[in-house]
Task: inverse folding
């Protein structure tokens, strides 16, 4: 396998074969993100990707059940390009169960429903989308490149074609001034999406990013652990979904939680209230481990 630069994947893809279909992220301007700043976006030639599939077969054999297409938004690839990759994966790995991909809203809505359905038929069955915030003001500040309405439309479009959705909400993006706005507006957007999976991560200021410079200048104030917990509690109080698997047990989080919404909402809110009351938060030295 040949990889260019640092490689990232969602926590749930830990056991997946990582196949680099694109290099970097086509947007790559989000102020908080440092994931792809070491490389310029480009599409890999399909022949290179097919060669890597053969190399993966030589190393792993035929028993690969999950594949994740890196980098930042491989769904930007033209449908025929993606289908060549998916078809070859199915041929080489007959036990293949699913293929996952990062996606942004505009890539999702640009694909006709029939194209997405054909990809689902060839195992591209889950996408991961970073909502980050449901507040358009905050989305503009972080240079997300999409509105909340566009991201809601993208998720709903992908799900209507039979894909499963995993949405990420980023605690703390509103800083100490707009944590309530971040919570309530994000809950509204997530409620409209009604995703299959929902993760709440905590913003981490990475040196060298625009957000780090804003922190240094005082333009951005990082919330305290209790404020992050209060934001997540407010978010959960306002979110209204039908059947969503919820996780906030990422390494970045101060209060690890897991449950199903709406079934476990009351318990999750109570756990956050208890953590705030007793100041029970993951110590800094354990965050990121």
Result:
């Amino acid at each position: 396998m040949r990889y260019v630069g640092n490689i990232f994947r969602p926590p749930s893809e830990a056991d997946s074969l990582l196949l680099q279909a694109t290099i970097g992220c086509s947007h790559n301007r989000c102020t908080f993100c440092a994931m792809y700043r070491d490389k310029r976006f480009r599409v890999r030639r399909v022949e290179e990707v097919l060669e890597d599939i053969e190399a993966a077969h030589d190393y792993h054999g035929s028993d690969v059940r999950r594949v994740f297409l890196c980098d930042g938004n491989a769904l930007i690839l033209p449908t025929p390009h993606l289908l060549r990759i998916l078809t070859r994966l199915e041929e080489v790995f007959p036990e293949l169960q699913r293929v996952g991909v990062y996606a942004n809203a505009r890539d999702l809505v640009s694909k006709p429903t029939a194209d997405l359905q054909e990809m689902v038929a060839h195992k591209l069955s889950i996408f991961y989308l970073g909502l980050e915030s449901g507040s358009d003001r905050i989305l503009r500040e972080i240079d997300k490149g999409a509105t909340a309405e566009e991201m809601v439309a993208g998720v709903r479009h992908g799900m209507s074609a039979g894909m499963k959705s995993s949405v990420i909400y980023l605690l703390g993006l509103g800083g100490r001034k707009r944590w309530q706005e971040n919570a309530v507006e994000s809950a509204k957007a997530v409620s409209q999406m009604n995703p299959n999976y929902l993760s709440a991560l905590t913003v981490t200021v990475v040196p060298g990013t625009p957000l780090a410079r804003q922190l240094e200048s005082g333009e951005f104030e990082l919330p305290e652990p209790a404020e992050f917990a209060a934001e997540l509690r407010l978010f959960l109080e306002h979110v209204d979904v039908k059947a969503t698997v919820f996780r906030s047990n990422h390494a970045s989080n101060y209060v690890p939680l897991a449950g199903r919404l709406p079934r476990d909402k009351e318990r999750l809110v109570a756990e956050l209230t208890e953590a705030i009351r007793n100041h029970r938060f993951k110590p800094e030295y354990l965050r990121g481990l």
